[in-house]
Design goal:
- By secondary structure, the protein is an alpha/beta fold.
- It has one domain: Rossmann fold (3-Layer(aba) Sandwich).
- It has six helices and six strands, in the order E-H-H-E-H-H-E-H-H-E-E-E.
- It has helices spanning 10-13, 21-32, 39-51, 57-70, 78-91, 95-106, and strands at 6-8, 35-38, 71-74, 111-113, 122-123, 127-130.
- The strands form two sheets. It has a four-stranded mixed sheet. It has a two-stranded parallel ribbon with strand order 2-3.
- Helix 3 (39-51) runs antiparallel to helix 4 (57-70) and helix 5 (78-91) crosses helix 6.
- It is globular, with a radius of gyration of 14 Å.
- The two termini are 21 Å apart.
């Protein structure tokens, strides 16, 4: 899968820090294939890594440095905000989840790895949500 095809939500990447070895390994395997993230993902990862996992900001930056070498990082723009607002209204997602979806769509991705949305839901007939930890 190329970097233009998959987008990572922060909740998937945070398993890299988890004591849940199975989920941490799954996140690592997916990340090794490359993908895309947004600045919002960087922000959310930093917040949770510092507050929940007790990393220092330096440790969080180091971890994100590794992620950023593998993933293309997309900025947030007013277009992301506007698209996120439309998605929230249409699909009933939280606004922040909707901006993640908007970022994946605007990056041209066809897969969004996320634990927060419905597994295998198709958004705008081109973006499929995959919960990589869903049981078959």
């Amino acid at each position: 899968m190329s970097d233009a095809e998959s987008f990572f939500d922060s909740n998937v990447l945070l398993y890299l820090l988890s004591a849940d070895a199975e989920k941490a390994d799954r996140a690592e395997v997916l990340l090794a294939r490359s993908g895309a993230i947004s600045v919002q993902v960087l922000n959310e990862f930093t917040t949770v890594a510092v507050r929940k996992f007790g990393l220092s900001f330096a440790e969080a930056r180091e971890m994100l440095g590794t992620i950023r070498t593998v993933c293309v990082t997309h900025p947030l723009t007013i277009e992301h905000h506007d698209k996120g607002s439309e998605i929230a209204e249409r699909y009933g997602f939280s606004f922040y989840d909707s901006v993640i979806v908007a970022s994946a769509l605007l990056a041209g991705c066809n897969v969004l790895y996320s634990e927060d949305l419905q597994h295998q839901q198709v958004i705008e007939k081109r973006l499929t949500v995959i919960n990589p930890f869903a049981k078959p």
